[in-house]
Amino acid sequence: MRKHTCDVVVVGAGLSGLTAARLLHKHDLDVAVVEASDRVGGRAYTLENAEMGMISDQGATRCGPAMSTLWQLIKDVGVKVWQQKPTQMVYVTENSVSRFTPTSLPTWNPLVRLDHYNIFSTMDRLANQVPPEEPWEAPSAQEWDSCTMKDFFDRTVWFKSVRRITDAFVSMLACAEPEEVSMLWFLWLMGQTGGGRFATLVNSNPPQYRVSGGMQQLYKILVEQLGDRVTLNCPVTKVENVEDGVLVTGDGATWEAKAVVLAVPPPCYSKISLSPALPEAFHHFTMGHAYKCTLYYKTNFWGNGDTFMRLYSDYPDCLAVNAFDDTVPGNKYPALTALITGRKAIEASQTSKEQRKDSICKCLAKAFSSEEAMQPLDYVEMNWNEEEYIGGGFSAYYPPGVLTRYKTLGRCRYNSTSRVFLAGAESATQGYGFLEGAVWAGKRAAEQVIAVVSQAADDSHPEEKQI
Ligand SMILES: Cc1cc2nc3c(=O)[nH]c(=O)nc-3n(C[C@H](O)[C@H](O)[C@H](O)COP(=O)(O)OP(=O)(O)OC[C@H]3O[C@@H](n4cnc5c(N)ncnc54)[C@H](O)[C@@H]3O)c2cc1C
């Protein structure tokens, strides 16, 4: 067993762990990042398809303008970004294909429009009543946490066509179904992401940015800055509090340190023997279900190149919940990426790769009346629920009852004497489940570790402090 000593161990080399490690290192603390898998990045993964001359982001892809902590990091490390052009929407159902813009719904029926406006503005209004730091303090917290989004839609939405949009909205944001998620949690999540306008079919269409060369570029720079402080292929199995610090055990190695930052997705906590244990609430988190599937084509048959395209599909035979133009500057071929989320991702896992590809191609052929849609040059996919040290995507969700019963969401420390600090996108109360939350939580954990370690150093040299 190799034995190491350092100031702080960071478990998990996703964006949250790397952000924490970067700040701790900048503060002159001796930091070790221990990662279970053979790569850094966690839920961000840029696939490099050398044969096709292509890169594609199979995990986190876009940065929105409101992600202020992420933008600060992007600026600090000097990574380049590019902006996607305005978006055209295409809505495909069993019997119809409608094209529309971000300011017009694919229907002329004024009552349907009213229903659509009503449900999203009601969700936005209720989301504004949920305090970001303590959602259980919302005026109707108990009531909202005792039911699901399905219960809420059942009593609020009038038209089936609008209901299909609201159900898809939950699936796209939470990667889970309306009957699975707590209404209180989902409203709170909406508050985190800028409200209903963020992801509805008719939205304000804020500009979206992508990292040049793929999201992995950001991680590459962070790892370069940390040098040999990052250990791969080393799943951490045990974290114990010992006198004045922690003992972290990984695959064939131990680290004795003053503190540990756990920056792993919630399902992975149960793979680590922790003493003291985390509160019971952590066993009630569930990861969403998500596939990301990219198709490369010879021509951009879906657009004219001036505008990006976003497609929403809404019929039983199509596995994709939505798809977007994934044509990346510098790539040899145009590309489309489809997301299969929630129930459809579970259905997809019971089919073959060929069947999933076929289902998406048929939907594209229908949406764009194109024969080429059936003949992609290549097809790549990633099922995030098969990733042993991630457990699903995009993030973890709360079923009813957990938020108000345990009141544990968003804390960095669970025990004032323990040297275990939590980071990770699911420990954030800003940008929960997104890159923004990952950076925010990593930064917070680093700041808290620095405060505790500095305090301990002062306490062990009181005479120096007096001078
Ligand atoms: C398909 C998909 C698309 C997404 N799109 C976007 C998007 O466009 N924009 C956006 O903002 N967000 C997006 N997200 C969400 C975003 O990717 C995550 O919020 C973010 O990457 C989480 O970062 P993290 O560091 O908290 O966790 P992770 O990235 O999950 O990193 C955790 C790390 O911990 C490691 N680990 C786990 N257990 C152990 C252990 N025992 N020992 C050591 N290491 C361990 C894992 O291997 C992993 O590397 C998307 C996610 C997915 C899956």
From TrEMBL:
FAD binds at S16, E35, A36, G59, A60, T61, R62, V236, E426. It is an enzyme of class 1 (oxidoreductase). It is a single-pass type IV membrane protein. GO terms for molecular function: flavin adenine dinucleotide binding; monoamine oxidase activity; primary methylamine oxidase activity. Coiled coil: none annotated. Keywords: FAD, Flavoprotein, Membrane, Mitochondrion, Oxidoreductase, Transmembrane, Transmembrane helix. Pfam families: Amino_oxidase (PF01593). Residues 15-450 form the Amine oxidase domain. It catalyses: a secondary aliphatic amine + O2 + H2O = a primary amine + an aldehyde + H2O2. The keyword Glycosyltransferase does not apply. InterPro entries: Amino_oxidase, FAD/NAD-bd_sf, Flavin_amine_oxidase, Flavin_MAO. Its EC number is 1.4.3.-. The keyword Oxidoreductase applies. It is found in: Mitochondrion outer membrane. One of its GO terms (cellular component) is mitochondrial outer membrane. Its cofactor is FAD. Belongs to the flavin monoamine oxidase family. This is Amine oxidase. It comes from Branchiostoma floridae.
